[in-house]
Amino acid sequence: MQKWIKSGSPWVWLTAASVSISIIMVIGLLLLIAARGLGHYWPADVHTFDYQDGSGQIIKVAGEIRDSEEVPTRQIVDSGIKLDSDAEQTVRHLVKIGNRELYGIDFRWLVDPLISQRATPEDMMVIERREWGNFYGFLKQVKVDGKVVAEGPGSWDALQQQIEQTSDIYANIRDIEKGDIGSINYSMEKLRLKQRGLELKGEDTPLALARIAQEKQSLQTEYESFQAELQDLYSELNRAALVAETIDGKSVEIAIAKTVQAYRPNGMSVFGKVGFYIHKLWEFVSDEPREANTEGGIFPAIFGTVMMVIIMSILVTPFGVIAAIYLREYAKQGPIIRMVRIAVNNLAGVPSIVYGVFGLGFFVYFLGGNIDALFFPEAAPAPTFGTPGLLWASITLALLTVPVVIVATEEGLSRIPKSIREGSLALGATKAETLWRTIIPMTSPAIMTGLILAVARAAGEVAPLMLVGVVKLAPTLPLDGNFPFLHLDRKFMHLGFHIYDVGFQSPNVEAARPLVYATALLLVIVIIVLNLAAIAIRNRLREKYKSLEQ
Q1: Distance separating alpha carbons of residues 219 and 185, to the nearest angstrom
Q2: b vs e for 329-366, b when ≥16 Cβ sit within 10 Å of the residue's Cβ?
């Protein structure tokens, strides 16, 4: 036994067991997040309940069962609910009842023993709306211009047709408002700044002002034509409406313009539910958020996260590599260089919020303020770069992750045999040529390793971004069709901040909870995809220069 312990085998098995447990825990955590997040988009059956309320009367409730749990019976009795039961535990259900404009709440707890009857009628309808959340009820009529065009069983097909037409109109309105009119407004603002710049320089001659006025008039004419088209589209959009009845008999008229989609989950087949589920997942990754970020998609947050990581990588890699090359290849080794290395290692342990405070004070207020004073005086007092934005967020995270790239690159440089350097110099190459043509290519796998670690850390950071550019909802993306196309001064959305906002700042906690899981899973997937891309590049470089290392 002692011989076996001294051989080191127990420690090998202990290490293997620890690694296995860690992998199982990570996989289990991801599966839990996936089940809680992705399960939210499956079309759950809508139940109707005959429920005994606190006064003893039977009321009708309809909704989706989102959660069920066992609680002590005493806890339910203490909350004021009359319950005749000798059991120590009682089951209660969290039901999403929707119809917030009628009931004021989206969710309600129902105690199982007080449910006298439960059913899942096939004609129960779920309407997903642009505001006020879901509506649960029965379709009665479809109206166009105030006139009933469909009623009874045949009204469902008419409703789907009207929703499809309305969605197309809504998409056209959105394209005109955000695309065409947005571009005109952007051009008008550029002309205003151009005129203000001429005034500051004293070059506002009548000829220059006349040219600007002519361009403004052309843009105004174009704007008025789009406005006329928008008025026609809005008139067409607001023509259709539906009349629905709630489970307790209330009649409600809903404008189809405020409807995203309507479906009957109780009557869906398995294939119908699968198709609906895929559609909802695509909407989640491709659409914009709505309802205080608790509904819709998160495409702007995905775009902002990936864009910030790409810009951060472009900034951090050359600076980190140059610093590592200087420390390893050029600097005279001594106490000063050792202190620099210690400082670099210590920077990796500085709390990220400290970088955010530094980025806000130095990059945003100092650099951005001076850039505005020098290059954008016509925009004053409105800041251009003197306010948090994509550029300052990327630079702040580049500063946060540069120690990782420096350390990884130095490790790679130290593994290059001295004979390769000497051979290159002996063949007549200069030191710079040796570094550029031989050493750096051979060190590229280590550089990519540092970049992978930097991306993994930067993509999940939230605290510094809250100070240097991330917002709850960005009206426009940093990349669009207006020159210069990439707008580094704009604020942006981020998956990590979106998780924080939905999880801790949402007014509707129960509705937001599944989105926290879904967004967290998507953030992990984005990080994995970015890392896999970098790993693939690193492996290709490693195979390319493996023979030289040997």
Answers
A1: 9
A2: beeeeeeeeeeebeebeebeeeebeebbebbbeebbbe
Torsion of CA 486, 492, 496, 500, to 10 degrees: 180
CA distance linking residue 422 with residue 438, whole number of Å: 11
Domain endpoint, select from 89, 119, 149:
119
Q: Which residues pair with 51 in a beta bridge?
A: 59, 115
- C-alpha–C-alpha distance, residues 224 and 195, integer Å: 22
Residue 74 lies in a domain: yes
List, as one string, the DSSP characters of 317-380. Answer: HHHHHHHHHIIIIISPPSHHHHHHHHHHHHHTTS-HHHHHHHIIIIIIIIIIHHHHHHH-GGGT
Whether the Cβ atoms of residue 490 and residue 394 lie closer than 8 Å to each other: no
Query: Token digits for 166?
Result: 């309305």
pTM of the model: 0.88
CATH classification at residue 373: 1.10.3720.10
What's the CA gap between 416 and 549, in Å, rounded?
7
Judge if 244 and 338 occupy the same domain. no
Single out the residue in 218, 250, 267 at which a domain terminates: 267
Nearest to 67 by CA among 521, 503, 514, 520: 514
- Please provide the DSSP assignment of 250-263 as one string: -EEEEEGGGEEEEE
Please give the C-alpha separations between residue 302 and each of 256, 264, 395, 492, 519, in angstroms, as whole numbers: 29, 31, 19, 10, 10
**Measured between alpha carbons, how far is 376 from 369 in angstroms, rounded to an integer?**
10
Of 354, 359, 429, the C-alpha closest to 393 is: 359
| Domain housing 115 | 46-119
Amino acid at 322: I
Together in a domain, 142 and 112: no
Q: What is the pLDDT of residue 362?
A: 94
**How far is the C-alpha of 515 from the C-alpha of 96, rounded, in Å?**
15
Taking only the tens place, the pLDDT of each residue in 96-154 is: 998 888 888 889 889 888 888 899 999 999 999 988 889 999 999 999 988 988 888 78
Give one word for 341, left, alpha or beta, with left for phi > 0 and alpha for psi -120 to 50. alpha
Residues paired with residue 59 on neighbouring β-strands, in sequence order: 51
DSSP string, 283-313: HHHHSPEETTTTEE--HHHHHHHHHHHHHHH
Residue 160 lies in a domain: yes
Q: Are residues 325 and 182 in the same domain?
A: no
Enumerate the β-bridge partners of residue 143.
Answer: 148, 241
* Residue 174 sits in the same domain as residue 238: yes
Residue 459 in any domain: the answer is yes
Assess whether 542 and 399 both reside in one domain: yes
**The predicted structure's pLDDT at residue 200:** 86
Tally the domains of the chain. Answer: 3
Residues 194 and 69 in one domain: no
CB atoms within 10 A of CB 482: 14
Same domain, 427 and 310: yes
What is the phi/psi pair of residue 121, to 5°?
Answer: -65, 140
Residue 22 lies inside a defined structural domain of this protein:
no
Pair 111, 148 in one domain: no
Is the pLDDT score of 342 beyond 90?
no
